Structures are given as C-alpha cells and as structure tokens.
Amino acid sequence: MTLTFYKYQGTGNDFVIIDNRESIVSKNNTKLFARLCDRKFGIGADGLMLLELPEDDKDDFTMVYFNADGNESSMCGNGGRCLVAFAAFLGVIENKAIFTAIDGKHHAEIKDGLVYLQMQNVSEIEKYDSHLFLDTGSPHHVTMVEGLASFDVENIGREIRNGAPYFDLGSNVNFVEKRNGNSFAVRTYERGVEDETLSCGTGVTAVALSMHAMQLTDKEQVCIQTPGGELKVTFTKGENGYENIFLIGPAEQVFKGEIKC
Ligand SMILES: N[C@H](CCC[C@H](N)C(=O)O)C(=O)O
C-alpha cells in the first residue's frame, strides 16, 4: 500500500501526520507507526498523529497520538498545535477548532500565524525538595539546574525517567534555568522518544505552571525558550489550581510525501 503522509514541526518537535478520516490505517498498527517514526528506516519523527472523524458532533475532529516507539501515548501539546494547523490546511476548520484527544476536549485557535491550544486544567502540583511533578496531559518531572546549555540531559534524563517512582510507566523530565524576568529556558528528555527532543509542549506547559507555583514568576504569562524555539504559556490561577491554560507557538508543514508500507 502507498500511504500519503504530512510532516509537521512545532518548535522542532516533529511529527508524521496521517489524514485517517477514512480509516486507511488501523490504530493498532504499532509496528507501522514505529517504522514511520524511525529516523533511518522510515520518515523520522518524535511522534505520529492520526486525524480522525469526530465522535462527538460538536467536535471538528479527533486526535490520536503515538510516541516514536509506536505506542499510543498521552497528550502531546506541540502535536495538538500541529494537528490544528493540519486541519486548517485540509479545510476541516477555518481558524478555530474543538477536538477530542486522549485527555479530553481541547479548544484551539490560529491567530497571527500562531496556534493557541487550550490545555486541560491542572489542579495539583506535587512539590518535592529536588523537583516538582504534575500532569499537563502527559506526566512531567520539573527540576531547576545551572548551566543548562552543557547539562547531560540524555543520561540524567534517562536515569530519572526510569528510576523511582516512575519505573516502566515513566515520566518526561524537564531541566529548567531561569533567564531574565519571567522567561525561562528548558531542555526535555521525552518519554517514548527515550531521548532529548528539541521541544515538548506539555513539558513547556508544566514548566510555566511550576515556575509560577514556585513563585519564580508572578506573571500569568511565561515565555519558555526551548532548543527548537520559543513558546508562550498563559494561564489563570484559581482556587482549584491552574485554568485557562494556553500553549502558544508556531506549527509548520515541512513536506508532504508518500511511502510504501
Ligand atoms: N512523549 C510524551 C507525549 C508527547 C509529549 C510532547 N511531544 C508534547 O509536545 O507534549 C509522553 O509520552 O508523555
């Protein structure tokens, strides 16, 4: 079979996207998804997404996300932003979207060339001596470091991801350095890619909320610099935690292709 796919990237987090509204691929085809994400034997990507028909008639589409290991995973913030851009490219939406992903419903809007993706509310942030842990649609371990540019993200990230209390289920691991004002830099070891990625959307969201929770910023809008580019996170702090959380940044179609599989 020849499969048409689209390659997208959001601040360097890159994805294979398939328009699966006619169910051309089965969601259980882990082997295929891993091969398509393989950077030597396939197209190469941090993850793969299927754009599917909506189950709820108030939705525009359904998002299904797979990590590079081919396994279906939790929410992907950069992937969600890229899928909204793809839906606009296909004409499935104009510039506003409502869609369902594994963590529930998301509202999104394309404005001034950026994709604004609403993330799920976060009611709880666990605070420990060495780090914070929270779930922004995917699980995130957040820790402050000095000398981020030369930090051994791959090895130390892998150790934390596989160690207590995460073990097999794992967590994404974010290493953060304060820049000026309310801007921070982050590098992320991503679960399911099992390596550092240039950016992680749910990770950037987790870092922004963590910086506010640790009072390292008092603003409800935080700029986060990742190796793949800059993302902005806005939110409001309510009695039940963090709400109205938006992950804001670019999403680009890099190329369209066909692959025999
Ligand atoms: N690999 C992550 C999911 C994708 C997260 C990341 N690509 C993002 O943009 O949020 C996990 O298994 O938790």
UniProtKB/TrEMBL annotation:
Keywords: Amino-acid biosynthesis, Cytoplasm, Isomerase, Lysine biosynthesis. InterPro entries: DAP_epimerase_AS, DAP_epimerase_DapF. Pathway: Amino-acid biosynthesis; L-lysine biosynthesis via DAP pathway; DL-2,6-diaminopimelate from LL-2,6-diaminopimelate: step 1/1. One of its GO terms (molecular function) is diaminopimelate epimerase activity. The active site is at C76 (proton donor), C76, C200 (proton acceptor). It is an enzyme of class 5 (isomerase). The keyword Cell membrane does not apply. The keyword Iron-sulfur does not apply. The record marks H140, E190 as: Could be important to modulate the pK values of the two catalytic cysteine residues. SUPFAM superfamilies: Diaminopimelate epimerase-like. Its EC number is 5.1.1.7. Its main location: cytoplasm. Substrate binds at N13, N67, G77, N78, N172, E190, R191, G201, T202. Pfam families: DAP_epimerase. PROSITE patterns: DAP_EPIMERASE (PS01326). NCBIfam families: DapF. PANTHER family: DIAMINOPIMELATE EPIMERASE, DIAMINOPIMELATE EPIMERASE, CHLOROPLASTIC. This is Diaminopimelate epimerase. It comes from Aquimarina celericrescens.
